[in-house]
Every structure is written in C-alpha cells, then in structure tokens.
Write a structure and sequence with these properties.
178 residues; 5 helices; globular; disordered C terminus
Length: 178
C-alpha cells in the first residue's frame, strides 16, 4: 500500500489484486466496510436463528462473526481469499474463546463446501470487488457477469432449501435468472 493511513488503494482496480489484500491485512487490525454490525443488526438477526449455520464470504478483518457470536449464533464459517486475513482472524478469535467459529482460506468464486451446508450466507462488501472493472454498472462486462454468477451459483448451491443470502452492498440490484 502506498499510504498506510489511507483506507483505499490509489485505484479501485487494485482491489482485484490478492497481494493488495495480504499487504493491507498484514498492517491493518480492523476495518468495517459499510458501517459496523450495529447498523445492520436488526435486519440480520430477524433472518438468522441461533441454531442457523452461517457462512460469511470475505471476512477480512471485520468483526461481523464476533458480533453474530455475541448474539448467540455460534455455527459460523468465515472465508477469505487472503491467507493473511485468515491467519490473523484465527489468532484474534482463539484468545476470545470463539473456538466454534471456523475460518478458512477459500475463494467465493469456487466455494469448497458440500451442497446445502448452510442456512445463511452473508457478505458485506465482498461482492462489490467483482464490479470494480465492470464498465457500465447498468450493463456490466460479460467477465463481470460470469464472476458474479459463479458466486451466486455457489451461494445457491451451499444454501439449504429455504436458506437466506444476505448481501450488504453499494451495488444496484443484479437481475439474472438462476
């Protein structure tokens, strides 16, 4: 990162570079995209039962999984593409006693879980990175549509019947039949 005090990179395209995330997470302890959990808690909790199994896409260094845990949801799996984020998250959770939370290095474009594994999949700003080189936001490039559809297909596959996908994003509604 050019400026360690800066929240973002010099170009949005940098978000596509996995090395950017490793470097960022190696020096940054915590950052919440789109506000912290307290702003969304009422919406999230109304859709998640304490017995729900939850998959968080792109956990980074967010405290979302910790806040869910404090609200009684303990069957949580977090994934991130960055090995640095995964390692730091694991070492942050263990001393707090959150042993049930699993943190796995994985790509949201190719989820390594069995079909119908989760009641809820949640992402907060993670899918937005797929749109940084989309071109026209109302008519994204075919490559962008393919990545988004791969993610949505994977989410659909790992959700149990009647499962819920919660996406907190700046993006507009993406209409595509799946």
């Amino acid at each position: 990162m050019e400026n360690p005090n800066s929240v973002g990179p010099p170009s949005a395209l940098t978000y596509l570079d996995p090395h950017y995330w490793d470097e960022r997470f190696s020096s940054e302890e915590h950052y919440e995209w789109f506000k912290d959990y307290s702003h969304f808690q009422h919406l999230i909790i109304s859709n998640i039962k304490p017995s729900s199994s939850v998959l968080e896409l792109g956990c980074g260094n967010s405290q979302l999984c910790e806040e869910l845990y404090k609200d009684g949801i303990v069957d949580i799996t977090c994934i991130d593409l960055s090995s640095v984020a995964v390692e730091k998250m694991q070492s942050r959770l263990l001393p707090k006693g959150y042993k049930e939370i699993k943190v796995v290095q994985a790509d949201m474009l190719d989820l390594p879980f069995d079909s119908e594994s989760f009641d809820v999949v949640i992402e907060k700003g993670t899918m937005d990175v797929l749109f940084v080189d989309a071109g026209d936001p109302w008519n994204p490039r075919p490559e962008t549509v393919s990545k988004v559809m791969a993610t949505l297909d994977g989410v659909h596959r790992v959700l149990k019947p009647d499962g819920i996908f919660i996406s907190i994003t700046f993006g507009q509604v993406f209409k595509q039949n799946i």
